[in-house]
Amino acid sequence: MTDFARMADAGNGRTAASVVVLSYNSRERIDTALRSLRAQRFDQPFEVIVVDSGEDGSADYVRAAYPEVRVVRSGTRLWPGAARNRGLREARGACVAFLSDDSAARPDWLRRRVELHRRGFDLVGGAVVNGTARSPVGTAGYLLEYSAVLPSERILSEQIPPHSLSYSLAGLAQGGEFPEDTRTGEDTIFNERLLRAGRTLALDPDIQIAHGNPTRLRAYFRHHYLHGRGLMQCADRQADRAACPHI
Are 50 and 71 in contact (CB under 8 A)? Predict the structure, then answer.
């Protein structure tokens, strides 16, 4: 039985939700995520876990500025899959959502997710809006990377597989762990695995985060080079390329 299966067995009496924030050298941007979580309009207990493996003092800063947040610190660099798994092992919520350190969640982001999980959906997905709308470079990066998760019911329904998901404990129990050997695409592989296992999915375009995108050309090119290389790693892990539609 996986760690996540044991989480499902112990699901009664848990807090309503866990939000795991992935942090790497995020001192200059993590306020974006944590302030948005402080502003959630959700009247039930939930926890926030920051998994940090950077070298810029983010963990100490979060402990001081956000004492309500639980910080999980790794002295070894964690790629996204390993950071997700580390957060999941610490999570005590009846469902688990993820938020990147440069994204702001809309105030009803968590409430809408929890409501759909409580209606019986294992996987709940939402939309990504442009957090750098005033920057031409940031907007170009947003449209290139997030065109499949625009706030549209039609566009969201066409994702293969869907992204930006939260998970019930039952879904996590069947999915195993996120792959830890890719720099990007770990959620693509994981979500495809769950869909093939028959887990139920709900998509709501009003579940939104505003994502911060690189606004300088050098950072833009570097980000998309690394992202593309990670997606190729993702594709190489599949017997076919159905789980990596962007390749």
Answer: yes
Considering the entire predicted model, what is its pTM? 0.85
Dist CA 98 CA 165 (whole Å): 8
Reduced to 3 states, what is the DSSP secondary structure of residue 74? coil
* 201 SS3 class: strand
Residue 212 φ/ψ, nearest 5 degrees: -80, 130
Cα 171 from chain centroid? 15
Q: Is the pLDDT of residue 103 over 90?
A: yes
Contact between 170 and 2 under an 8 Å Cβ cutoff? The reply is no
User: What percent of the chain is predicted at pLDDT more than 70?
Assistant: 81
Under the banding of pLDDT at 50, 70 and 90, the label for residue 10 is very low
Residue matched to tokens 């076919």: 240
Counts of helices then strands in the chain (DSSP H, E)? 10, 8
Q: Where are the alpha helices (DSSP H) in the chain?
A: 3-9, 30-38, 58-65, 80-90, 109-118, 136-146, 153-157, 169-175, 186-196, 217-236
